[in-house]
Design goal:
5 helices, 172 residues
Length: 172
């Protein structure tokens, strides 16, 4: 419960698993999300452990294709992280696409002298809406489906209807 204050036990277990030689992906809660909210920390750690191996595989293949080229990956809060560090922070990449869109909108707004912007990003399955007032707002109280995701992310609202959604009126 209190690993965010004292992570000695988690680090000891992590070290023992690494030294065992087991080929497993490790996700330590005190590293993923060091906050007092144990449920949110647990969800973030679970998501990180689930996504980490997938992200690692993808980024390893990408890096091997690009050689020594430095790769930066967009995070959910609109900032970038080195690809070599992104695997351990996979949960922080969940909303990287929409965050990239907001970052581009902020940049475009500054180029044309507009700082107050409503961003409307309609994809195939959802629509993301955000308000920019000179800066991109962030929150640590986001949700992915029913799960609270307390990692820093852009403050936007998503509805489950995008350009590829099919709606109809029932005659009954």
């Amino acid at each position: 419960l209190f690993s965010f204050l004292a992570d000695t036990f988690e680090k000891t277990i992590e070290t023992a698993i690494k030294e065992s030689g087991l080929p497993v992906f490790l996700s330590r809660s005190s590293k993923v999300l060091p906050v007092y909210k144990e449920y949110e920390r647990g969800i973030a750690t679970w998501l990180n452990a689930s996504l980490g191996p997938v992200v690692h595989g993808y980024l390893s293949r990408l890096q091997s294709q690009l050689g020594s080229t430095s790769i930066q990956i967009m995070q959910s809060n609109g900032e970038t992280i080195e690809a070599s560090k992104a695997t351990d922070a996979a949960v922080r990449l969940l909303l990287s696409g929409p965050a990239g869109g907001l970052t581009a909108m902020k940049h475009l707004g500054r180029q044309v002298g507009i700082e107050q912007i409503i961003s409307f990003d309609m994809g195939g399955t959802s629509t993301d809406v955000a308000l920019l007032d000179g800066e991109i707002g962030t929150t640590s109280e986001g949700h992915i489906g029913p799960y609270p995701v307390a990692v820093p992310m852009v403050d936007m609202h998503t509805i489950g209807a995008g350009g590829g959604s099919i709606a109809f009126v029932d005659s009954g």
